[in-house]
Amino acid sequence: MKKIENSYLKRSQSLLELIDKSPTPFHAVEEFKHQLKNGGYVELMEQDSWDLSPGGKYFVIRNGSSLIAFCVGSIMPDESGFKIIGAHTDSPNLRLKPNPSYVKNGYIQLGVEVYGGALLTTWTDRDLSLAGRVVLKEASKKARKSSRVKQKSLSSEGYGCASRLVKFDRPLLRIPQLAIHLNRSVNEKGLVLNPQNHLPPVFALSDGKIKSKKMLEELVAGELNCDPTDILGMELQLFDLQKGTLAGVNNEFVFASRLDNLASCHAAMSALLESPRKDSATRVLVFYDNEEVGSDTAQGGGSPFLKGVLERISAGGSKPREAFMRGIARSLFVSADMAHAIHPNYSEVHDANHLPMINSGPVIKSNAGQKYATEGVSASQFEQFCEKAKVPVQKFAIRSDMRCGSTIGPITAANLGIRTVDVGSPMLSMHSIREMAGSKDQENLIRVFKEFYKPEQFFTKRC
Ligand code: ZN
């Protein structure tokens, strides 16, 4: 079998590094922030007045978990449009409840809620840890002086609060499966998990003396080098400590957590950072949180975050409202989210004419019920980018007797009235704690996105 070229492997390794650094949307956005700053992008605050200049490179973060970056075109959007790629930073997982700790049968356990459509059984018997955002009293002097975590990671949130990210690099938790001797029919009937009863992980043994309720706060305070009484709130989620890896006889696969959808974020960010600065059109990327729970949050795809930023980019001329609306009519939104590859053991769940293969290029997703926003023109435009980038392209539609999933594509298309295409790299084990994709497809997607972001590749009219 032919070996995969090295450039593909480097791309996939870079993706795996991002995933390992990003157990939560907060960590992913923090990593992208560093990348953008290194690439010369300037951070803007939503509450400040913006003074944007043509060719200027900027980014703005909302809630620490969503991000928009843009490179202002040399011509105003009313004449040149926006070239936008969107993806989401969140993945299905288990999240700690506000009062998580309790003692049961001699164990200290943590109550969890399911975030998104997780494949629950994959969370059992894993080496799990905790990561997330901790809200502290802003006055916490000890937290400010921490030598272990850099000062810049303490961000002021107003109202006397500051936030810090935390990530434990050792196994703290496990959701143990029941032994087969106590669940004899599990292989025939499948493992059925009640989220309330069966998912709380084991955290420690209780000796009857330890104040179990305080154990978690003390652990987090120790990691952040602050006092437990400085902690006002915690948003912690579980993640698998096992690092992502290249896999398969010829390294044709990647096995990792959160490929859906950090792979699309990584591809969009790589394309933006590697594109030449000067272009007539304004290049934009938007990474939303909360796609896996329906997008209807202040930082999700259902929010006015993107619309507000595009309006502010259009605000320089004498007719800002018209500039925005004319700009939208010249634009294309590429909604990037992972796609279903054909599963060799379950081919009956796929439509026989739509069988995307791993390492065979991005997939254009269509649905008659408009769960994907793709239409004829947007699909054709994306196919042309693939052709110019010399990357094969595939198509997906769900079986007619099955319900289709959705993306940020339709919600963005409906909010902005913008032409949209839904695309993504093919993968298996979607929403498992350990997903699987192709090592060649990351480079494939980046090449197509770079073609889209290529200078003077803009759309003059809406047909
Ligand atoms: Zn997704």
Could you outline the blueprint of secondary structure elements for this entry?
Elements: H1 6-21, H2 25-38, E1 42-44, E2 57-62, E3 66-71, H3 77-80, E4 82-88, E5 93-104, E6 107-115, E7 128-137, H4 141-144, E8 155-158, E9 161-167, H5 186-189, H6 195-198, E10 202-205, H7 212-224, E11 231-240, E12 245-247, E13 253-256, H8 259-274, E14 282-288, H9 305-313, H10 320-329, E15 332-336, E16 339-340, E17 363-365, H11 376-388, E18 394-396, H12 408-416, E19 420-424, E20 426-428, E21 435-438, H13 441-453
Parallel strand pairs: 1-2, 4-14, 4-15, 15-19, 16-20, 17-18
Antiparallel strand pairs: 2-3, 3-14, 5-6, 6-10, 7-9, 7-11, 8-9, 12-13, 13-21, 17-19, 20-21
Helix pairs in contact: 1-8, 1-13, 8-13, 9-10, 11-13
The structure holds zinc ion.
The site of zinc ion (ZN) has 6 residues, from helix 8.
What does this 3D model show about the protein?
The chain is α/β, with parallel strands linked by helices and 463 residues long. The chain folds into 2 domains: 2-91 and 257-453, Aminopeptidase, CATH 3.40.630.10; 93-240, Aminopeptidase i, Domain 2, CATH 2.30.250.10. Helices cover 28% and strands 25% of the residues. It contains 13 helices and 21 strands. The protein has helices spanning 6-21, 25-38, 77-80, 141-144, 186-189, 195-198, 212-224, 259-274, 305-313, 320-329, 376-388, 408-416, 441-453, and strands at residues 42-44, 57-62, 66-71, 82-88, 93-104, 107-115, 128-137, 155-158, 161-167, 202-205, 231-240, 245-247, 253-256, 282-288, 332-336, 339-340, 363-365, 394-396, 420-424, 426-428, 435-438. The strands form 4 sheets. It has a 9-stranded mixed beta sheet, sandwiched between helices. Strands 12-13-21-20-16 form a 5-stranded mixed beta sheet, covered by helices on one side. The protein has a 4-stranded antiparallel beta sheet with strand order 8-9-7-11, sandwiched between helices. A hairpin with a 5-residue loop joins strand 12 and strand 13 (253-256). Helix 1 crosses helix 13, helix 9 (305-313) crosses helix 10 (320-329) and helix 11 (376-388) packs across helix 13 (441-453). The protein is globular and about 70 Å long. The structure holds zinc ion. Residues 88, 260-261, 291, 337-338 line the site of zinc ion. Zinc ion binds at residues 88, 260-261, 291, 337-338.
